[in-house]
What we know:
Layout lengths: L1 E10 L7 E10 L2 E6 L8 E4 L3 E5 L1 E6 L15 H12 L5 H17 L2 E8 L5 H13 L3 E6 L10 H8 L8 E7 L2 H4 L1 H14 L2 E6 L5 H7 L7 E5 L5 H10 L2 E4 L1 H6 L7 H6 L4 E3 L11 H16 L4 H7 L2 H6 L17 E5 L11 H8 L5 E6 L2 E5 L2 E2 L4 H19 L14
Parallel strand pairs: 1-4, 1-5, 6-7, 7-8, 8-9, 9-10, 10-11, 11-12, 12-13
Antiparallel strand pairs: 1-2, 2-3, 5-14, 14-15, 15-16, 16-17
Helix pairs in contact: 2-3, 2-15, 11-14, 12-14
Amino acid sequence: MKTLITGGTVLTVDPTLGDFARGDVLIEDGRIAAVAERIDAPDAEEIDATDRIVMPGFIDNHRHTWQTAFRGIGADWTFTQWAHAMHGTVKPHYTPEDVHAATLLGRLEALHSGITTMLDWYHVAQGPDHEDAAVTALRQAPARSVFCLGAGWATPTPVEADIRRLRAHLDDTGPVTMAWGLRGADDTGIDTLARELRTAAELGLHTSLHTGGDHRPVAAMHHHGLLRDTTTFVHGNGIADDELRMLADAGSSLSVSPDVELKMGFGAPLTGRALAAGLRPTLSVDVVPSVGGDMFSTMRTAFCAQRGLDGTLRARDLIHFTTIDAARSLGLHTRTGSITPGKDADLVLLRTDDLTVFPVTDPVGSIVTAGHPGLVDTVLVAGRVVKRNGALVDIDLAPLRDRLLESRDRIAAAAGVPLDGTWDPKPTT
């Protein structure tokens, strides 16, 4: 099977290839076969990319998709309110069906906005049936996903058996792969963290770990020899500069969620400080009850916040954070993240004739400063067109929407919380 994307402005995110003001991309058997100003392939199906930017699909390496049903409800919440609401109040009422509905719609939402690869940081932690429901939903979405199992979240409960059970069903070859969402030493102790990192290495799993700046957590892991190039540290606000250099030296990665961090009071995102320490940051959405679910707004917040702090960052940095740098954080950089021959054809085509961006004088600047999901015209995952002319292909959204509304209403009723914007979660402790 051959597909030729022709006549678009091509942002390869590959430094050896550069950009093409007018270029073609040839896809064979789901992989990128060639990128050039013009390619002659008369036997290929053509996709006309006139008035389109062709770029790698976005990569979100940290999103809690199980919360999709409660989109927007926490716009005014602090972190403490969000934690009490989502984990302490509604989570106990989630059934496997609720997890499935939220995960499927959440993954489709991300795909619709051009996110071809997404790490689903799962911490519903209700049992195997809930986990299996999430994996099933990710497999039903025509996208590349990483199921990051945060088993036993916020408890010291042994979880290795749970991790091994799921790992037996998720290898590294399919569109849905697996990672381990670590709980960290605060919840389990440094010895347990060390044991779990050894198990992760044995199973060939990348890991992801939420952390902040209290008690110098990175320095403690460094002291015990626990920093890995397979671990992504999420947020990290308050981490000291020397700890950022420790992460850079270890080859670890950092996932910044700028909207959540600024809104919920975590502190300034680490984007600029990470770069200064030699660490390539990545960007992620985190939770849609509080923030938008697309990478355009995430890039713009990170860009504006850092430029306001010290004037650093360039628009192209943000494109790299959300493509090749994020792919590297997931161990997927040889498969996706740039338009490079040999990689899977995970691509998005963005409209340049839309009045919100027209005229596009600088494609990179236009994407970062004015981009939005409405520009996403076409999406391909491993060469398969999954969105065309602004609509997802072969997806009947109406019954899925109905299921999610029913799920939300049932959970809210069981938890005794309002859905009219008046819910003000107040922790009892």
